[in-house]
């Protein structure tokens, strides 16, 4: 189900990406709005130095749409782990290019959260590796046919709704600083390890 959601999401997003290829704002601190027909819009607060978001999460009434957020940047820019965990996937495939998936472990109910990073230019970790929040795991790219040739990171957060059944959720509901508060990683900050909270998967300037 999750894979079908992601495939349909990417296909539906491709015309949008191609249409904005020449006008996406690449300066930091900017985020596009949600689609008008998205029911659960979130007020997104972008730090001034956070690389910009060119497409938001979207799910239609049938359960399909865009399963994450797209962060624009230059090819080769660092991609970092949004939270500590174990790499469970690191490989290349034709549609999504280089991808990395990290399992962040179970919550108090025993249900896992994972993060997914797609269209990477290169991967710096392998399945089985333990990674820490903020660790360099890959570089931003435009690999895979569904990247539309636009350098960006497609970032997803997926949560188990029951054991082994994952559902994509809006990443803006999962930031450590609160809903809608895009949270840049700060190596000097002590993060709460008792519950999952994400930091931005690319370094802020």
Q: What can you see in these coordinates?
A:
GO terms for molecular function: metalloendopeptidase activity. InterPro entries: Cell_wall_metabolism_enzyme, Dup_hybrid_motif, M23ase_b-sheet_dom. With 205 residues, the chain is mainly β. The protein has a single domain, classed as Glucose Permease (Domain IIA) (Distorted Sandwich). It is 9% helix and 32% strand. It has 1 helix and 13 strands. The strands form 3 sheets. Strands 1, 4, 6, 7, 8, 10, 12 and 13 form an 8-stranded antiparallel β-sheet that branches. Strand 12 and strand 13 form a beta hairpin. The longest helix is centred in the first third of the chain and has 18 residues. The radius of gyration is 15 Å and the shape is globular. 41% of the residues are buried. The N terminus is likely disordered.
Short description:
By secondary structure, this protein is mainly beta. It has 1 helix and 13 strands.
Give the SSE map:
Blueprint: H1 2-19, E1 53-55, E2 58-59, E3 65-66, E4 69-72, E5 78-80, E6 85-93, E7 97-106, E8 112-120, E9 122-123, E10 130-131, E11 136-139, E12 152-162, E13 165-169
Antiparallel strand pairs: 1-4, 2-3, 4-12, 5-11, 6-7, 6-10, 7-8, 8-12, 9-11, 12-13
| CATH fold category name | Glucose Permease (Domain IIA)
Q: Largest sheet at a glance?
A: 8 strands, antiparallel
Could you report the average pLDDT, rounded to the nearest whole number? Answer: 89
Write down the Rg. Answer: 15 Å
Percent range for β-strand residues: 25-35%
Shape: globular
Helix proportion: under 10%
CATH-level-2 architecture: Distorted Sandwich
Give the number of DSSP strands: 13
Total of DSSP H or I helical runs spanning 4+ residues: 1
Low-pLDDT regions: 1-24
Q: Would you identify the CATH H-level superfamily?
A: Glucose Permease (Domain IIA)
Structural class: mainly beta
What is the element string, with H for helices and E for strands?
HEEEEEEEEEEEEE
Name the CATH class: Mainly Beta
Terminal-residue CA separation: 37 Å
What is the number of domains? 1
Signal peptide: 1-26
GO molecular function: metalloendopeptidase activity
Protein name: Peptidase M23-like protein
InterPro entries: Cell_wall_metabolism_enzyme (IPR050570), Dup_hybrid_motif (IPR011055), M23ase_b-sheet_dom (IPR016047)
């Amino acid at each position: 189900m999750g894979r079908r959601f992601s495939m349909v999401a990417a296909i539906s997003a491709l015309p949008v990406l191609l249409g904005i290829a020449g006008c996406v704002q690449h300066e930091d601190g900017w985020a596009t709005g949600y689609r008008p027909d998205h029911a659960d819009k979130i007020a997104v607060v972008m730090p001034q130095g956070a690389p910009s978001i060119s497409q938001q999460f979207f799910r239609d009434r049938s359960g399909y749409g865009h399963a994450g957020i797209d962060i624009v940047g230059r090819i080769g820019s660092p991609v970092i782990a949004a939270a500590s965990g174990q790499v469970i996937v690191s490989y290349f495939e034709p549609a999504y290019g280089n991808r990395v998936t990290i399992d962040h472990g179970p919550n108090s109910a025993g249900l896992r959260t994972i993060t997914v990073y797609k269209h990477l230019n290169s991967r710096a970790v392998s399945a089985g590796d333990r990674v820490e929040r903020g660790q360099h795991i890959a570089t931003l790219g435009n690999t895979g046919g569904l990247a539309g040739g636009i350098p960006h990171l497609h970032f997803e957060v997926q949560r188990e709704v029951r054991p082994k059944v994952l559902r994509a959720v809006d990443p803006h509901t999962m930031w450590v600083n609160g809903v809608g508060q895009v949270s840049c990683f700060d190596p000097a900050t002590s993060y709460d390890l008792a519950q999952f909270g994400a930091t931005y998967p690319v370094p802020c300037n």
